Amino acid sequence: MQPSARMRRGVSAMALSVSANRDSCANRGGKMTEAYSPVGGLTRRNFLKSTGVAAAAVAAGGAGAFAAGGLAQAATYEAGQTEGDGEQIFCGVCRGNCSGTCKLNLHVVDGKIVKTSKRQFNSFPDGRVDRICLRGLSHVYNVYGPNRIQYPMRRVGERGSGEWERITWEEAIKEITDEWKRIQAEYGEQAIAYTRGSGNLGAISGVASPMYNVFFNKINASMIKIARDQANTRGINRVVGNLGDWVLNDPSDFKNAKTLFVWGANITDAQLHDWHFVADAQDAGTKLVVIDPIMTQLAARADLWIPIKPATDAALALSMMYVMVNEDAVNKPFLRDHTCAPFLVRSDTGKFLRMSDLGVEPEVIEVEAGQVSAASSENKGAQVGKAKTVQKIIDHPAVLDADGAVKSLAEAVDPQLNGTYDFNGVPCNTAYDLLLEDIMEYAPEKAQEICDIPAETIVELAHLALDGPCTHRLGWGSNSYTNGVHAAHANITMAALTGQIGYPGAGTGVGDFKACWGINAVVKGMTAAKYPMISALALPEIMRTDKWKGQDYPIRSLYVYAGNPVSNQVNTNEYINDVVGNMDLYVVADYTFTDTVKYADIVLPAAHWFEQQELVPISATQCFLHSEKAIDPLYESKSDFEILKLLAAGMGHPDLIDLSEDEYMSQVVDTPGLGALGITYDAIKENEDMYWYADKPWIPWKNAEFRTESGRMEFYVENPTVQFDVGQEFDEDREHLPRYFNPTEAYEGSPAWDKYKLILLSERPRFRVHSMWSDNAYLRELDPEPTIKMNPADAEVRGIADGDYVEVYNDRGHCVARAVLNDGIRPGCMVYPKSWQQHQHKAGCWSELLTSEYDPVGVNESYFDNLVEVRVWNEE
């Protein structure tokens, strides 16, 4: 595909515009010009104007002529592999958090990237994962666009004003580290904190990098962990064990399912790299069932669309299980042999009856310590000093055997799914009987009232789920309420009842992307963290009170990399006022202006992905990938790796990070486990990509081997734990089994219902990955402004017409967007494409409206658990 004339002209115009803006900044004594301001951006008018300037420069044979000529030359190529005269093609990896990690050709002429095109994966010669989307095609704008941060800057106006002055790297590092030393001396070591988003999946300068822990652990800083998209993980992993945060059969396996259920995921837009696998499955005869309140692109292509009431997924799954049980259609052999169903549970403690309760001494054995995941959310310094083996205490659960006797699970011949036992006056029931008590409360007729789905449809869904093989892919919809953990818990429990997990076409999980296990986290210089990791959801309260878990814990500086929390964290006003507003020093490293950069005290210009080499160990393709450095960092930007080295030296540790990027990447990958698969860093560089599993396609939980204590699916959670310990209390009894309960706010009759009657949902658009690409002018021509989708019936009663600018509001904040009336939006709901920047709205922003209340177990941002109202905007 050749770029259009508009695209070719636009890129050359950008190169000239950036150069001119830089000179303008210098001429103004380092003040940021409008072209640098996220408020100014690049308007269509300015874009066309600068295009004309570029054309004039080319005609005059000026500085832009050679660049424009190079672009025209590159444009003559199809999306192929052949280099032309004067052109070099490098291997790049697009590594935003859509998870696709697509390989790209980076076409370079005269030291400039002039276009991107699709590049073949060597691990998949059939081309199944070769792809490039609109975002991938528009990377050139991200590299050369006018919002690129060119040099270090110091804030000179009020926070958020966008007023800056240019400073040198030496000044920036000295100011940051001098202030950090002062803060630590006055408030304690923990008062320096660092956090990230998901804007770079790399292993050295990105979110999988151990290097941040190397530096910040050395100075005993506090690690603030983002708290999003983890409720599904909690609900599933507490049943099957931890094989990663988002685990499901490889999408190429979808075609082996009779029915593919998709729960709250718009794959055509949010994970469009996986969409063709869904289409292939449909072509092969797989029935597609989409359960979503909204008629999404995917729902429009489904064989059956179920417009469920928001936040009621757990009730639907429980009711489907009711049908299975009521019709005696559950897979009893699987329940008996591969789940906790026959385990006896003590009524006094809620714990499994163990053989030690019956006087049998537990067995103690040595087992290998678990491997480390590249995407592990823990501080990688936690691996320091860990033994290669650990002791495991085996205290077998007690079960009822067919002869009525209570025996060890290891000795029972035919463990019973139903039955009771009196243990010294303490009644004990099987875990399966306890599950049935919950399930049998959700007859289809009752679930119909909760979910707004006809009872006969629920029966039909149950029958489809029984007729295997069947795959359930969970998205981020049900994950985004305070009952999201239980929605996932219920869904994976349904797999326990059907036995449809761990073989071709059969599985339940999120399955968006995977991270390699078996890396080495303890690279040179790594030390253990002195302080526990803190959830970002706890940070506002810490900043308000200077306390954490009842103890003094002031934080006075935050370093942000690979993320944009002002745009992406819930309750923007709370974050700006309580978190940023109480910081003595707020530092942001990024390559482009974002909402978060706007509030920084010091801004550091980070290199773009293609201006540095990187190892990518997190991918929907299950491949390690090596991304080459195509060009030198533009302007005064530096890779995050280089920035860390400067910060370490400034804090008095000049030799802390003293190896090369290649040497650190070798330390991460060159492990015995990966070596057994033939994977080494040198091999990855040579091959560009290397598949990290032994089999294709990858299917988790083969042979019903689970990573729980018992090695079985434990739908009854004996010892519920929380995602993050922030000193919260939780109802342990509720967490043993999957339950349905109302979310915090987004339901009829909630405390906010008297004032607000619309549930606010969001969608992940194909034009952005979270807030990345939000300032890409090419994509803004296709998607020019924030919109809010609503049902015509809801609009009519509020006097709203299609195309009106409307104000969406609640007690937390407001946002103005253009109304789009759509019959596919469930009445009582509104849907906005997420992650526009503040300056792209006429007023407010979407994250202002989002609650910071969270489930104490999932400790997950509740993006959908919000009620709002809407009115025509009066432009005040």
Automatic annotation (TrEMBL):
Q: Which UniProt keywords apply?
A: Iron, Iron-sulfur, Metal-binding, Oxidoreductase, Signal
Segments forming domain 4Fe-4S Mo/W bis-MGD-type: 87-147
By its UniProt entry, which PANTHER family does this protein fall under?
Answer: OXIDOREDUCTASE YYAE-RELATED, TRIMETHYLAMINE-N-OXIDE REDUCTASE
Family named by the database record: Belongs to the prokaryotic molybdopterin-containing oxidoreductase family.
State the Pfam families in the record. Molybdop_Fe4S4, Molybdopterin, Molydop_binding, TAT_signal
Superkingdom of source? Bacteria
Q: Which GO terms describe its molecular function?
A: iron-sulfur cluster binding; metal ion binding; molybdopterin cofactor binding; oxidoreductase activity
Read off the InterPro entries from this record.
Answer: Asp_de-COase-like_dom_sf, MoPterin_dinucl-bd_dom, Mopterin_OxRdtase, Mopterin_OxRdtase_4Fe-4S_dom, Prok_Mopterin_Oxidored, TAT_signal, TAT_signal_bac_arc
Name by which UniProt lists this protein? Molybdopterin oxidoreductase
Q: Does the keyword Nucleus apply?
A: no
